[in-house]
Amino acid sequence: MTRSKTTPEEALLYHFEPTPGKYEIVASKPMATQRDLSLAYSPGVAVPVLAIAERPETAYDYTVKGNMVAVVSNGTAILGLGNLGALAGKPVMEGKAVLFKRFADVNAIDIELNTEDPDEIIKAVHLMSCTFGGINLEDIKAPECFIIESRLKEICDIPVFHDDQHGTAVICAAGMINALEITGKKIEDCRIVLNGAGAAGIACLELLKSMGARHENCIMCDTKGVIWQGRPDGMNQWKSAHAVKTDLRTLEEAMVGADVFLGVSAKGAVTPEMVRSMAENPVIFAMANPDPEITPEEAHAVRADAIVATGRSDYPNQVNNVLGFPYLFRGALDIHARAINDEMKIACARALAALARQDVPDEVAMAYGRKLSFGRDYIIPTPFDPRLIYTIPPAVAKAGMDTGVARRPIIDMKAYEAGLKARMDPTATLLQGIHARARQAQARMIFAEGDDPRVLRAAVAWQRSGLGKALVVGRDQDVKDKLESVGLGDAVRELEIVNAGNSRHLDAYKDFLYQRLQRQGHDREDIHRLAARDRHVFASLMLAHGHGDGLVTGATRKSAHVLNLINTVFDASATAGAVGVTALLHKGRIVLIADTLVHEWPDEEDLATIATKAAGVAQNLGLEPRVAFVSFSTFGYPVSERATKMHRACSVLEKRGVSFEFDGEMTVDVALNMQRMAAYPFCRLTGPANILVVPARHSASISVKLMQEMAGATVIGPILTGVTKPIQICSTGATVNDILNMAVMAACKVG
Ligand SMILES: NC(=O)C1=CN([C@@H]2O[C@H](COP(=O)(O)OP(=O)(O)OC[C@H]3O[C@@H](n4cnc5c(N)ncnc54)[C@H](OP(=O)(O)O)[C@@H]3O)[C@@H](O)[C@H]2O)C=CC1
Ligand SMILES: CC(=O)C(=O)O
Ligand SMILES: [Mg+2]
Questions:
Q1: Is residue 139 a known part of a binding site?
Q2: Which residues form the active site (predicted)?
């Protein structure tokens, strides 16, 4: 598995750009006209007000309550970093809010309460609880968290769930069910050592005990060592409940012969010697964040027979509450639950454990760069598993319904599962899929414009995200200076800087170029200038000679200029069949537009070729292509010379006998909106088009830029296709992320 490394600078930039923080609030209703305002606010809003006053449960129908969770913290136990205060906890709580959205389409908002007084927190949360469908308490330290949660559960009529306690316990239990199955041990017989007697620790041990672990077999430790019966220091009632009669005093002593270690304490709390002293086939869940009690490398170095899990995404077996809270709340919200009870938690743990035993879809395996099958390195599903959203919430909802906490039971479970699948944003899945493929390809990516800080940042990100090797074309000192200027000075050692001065291949490149251009008016001197001084040409020559696997350029010069230079080395022209395809990602939809780069005024034959190439890109992205030839007329009306070629392109494709769906000509609304398409029952498209072949380059540019500027669509491309090697040309306005996405396209050979 490739480790992904990020630097502190990248982490800060991620949080800073393009706007500070990680989320924003978007209106879900039109808010443009006088009528909209009258409905949204006064006077229209008075009607739901009266309805809710009369029947409070209708708040679930007329407000965001039913899909809204508050992530509440006072910052007293931020990850494993300790008590850093309410405000410092905000990035974590915002992070949790976006994970709720990303993984389960739950709207969440972070609320930081600047107090350590449990009564104040209880009062504040209780007072605001009517606003929400659920409360996720987070990173509140023990023992106050126990008091706060239990009191709030008594007085609130919505789920109140301290995730560090129960989320962690649920995931830990799911992993433990599978780890013990693999080692053939029974939980009743296991000697369990838990380090960290706080929120997470006490809840984990309680759940394992409810699953059969025996009290006398479980040793709990904290900063003062073993919690033994009668210990006078650092105790509280929650720790006392787990104190055992024992002569053991230190974690080191407790670990001797232990079958299971659970760590929810702090970085580095466990030594290799402790692991060495454990029983055969030890199970080690080192769950402290961001750094575990012991790393898997260290544990495996002394005990090859260990099953090791951590809380991190960059190691196998991520035992992290991110696998639970989005789905627990999704299931609870969907039944308008009054609580998340033990049965719902256990149903979640069982469903997670069961999912890990099933065959893993390819896209999930690819995201992790290795085959995932149930075993020592795969005891728990991975957070990017797309099956989580439609397997875990139904199990939780059903358990809630069976135990009477549902205000609104789900009648049709099958329809519910289908609805859950539809909730997930396909654009996120698409990007995740191609990034996963790129990671597997491990391409040597040539970044031609090593004098541009954005390109350099993308190259560093390429390398550090484990996507492959970054080859940067540029002058050594210049690259170094520019890296320094963006705070990435140390990355210079990781990148390979290539230029005509340090390349052993310059003569071979020049010979190759001379062969291609000698009959096009270029003499040897021109060739030298092109090969040695133009980075687009030099980079293309590297690619042509196999000295890199893909090429990204275009961030500093207009794409037409760059394409001309690439054409000196490759046949990337309209006549050679090259096509530019741009992907627009917006509101959960993906639409490809073509040709956005190469053909200026295509005729019907060209249009048919463009459609075929775009269909290839769509298939490569995992989409079933449906092509619409678009114009300002639909199926021959109004009649126009400009629209006729779009119509004729269909006939060309018919003759060519292609296997994908296509039709036209039609207007964009007919192409994208099934209700509008229904007016033409003979239309051969079985769903909304996902490829729009436009009449000419200007209409392509206008549509893409309009969507980008007016609608805020995410634009990927133009993806260059129809060239023998993977080359991608980004736009001059490209951000670091855009450049990275283009490199990913090149690595996946999407074009
Ligand atoms: N992987 C996951 O999903 C999750 C991981 N965690 C991790 O668990 C850890 C604890 O979080 P949480 O329970 O919320 O925090 P709490 O503050 O509630 O509890 C921390 C506990 O850990 C103990 N502790 C701290 N350092 C050490 C040490 N070096 N050796 C032994 N015990 C130690 C404390 O001991 P004392 O009582 O003596 O002060 C306390 O009992 C964090 O690292 C957090 O990141 C938490 C939730 C989820
Ligand atoms: C994951 C988590 O909630 C924690 O480390 O606190
Ligand atoms: Mg936490």
A1: yes
A2: 96
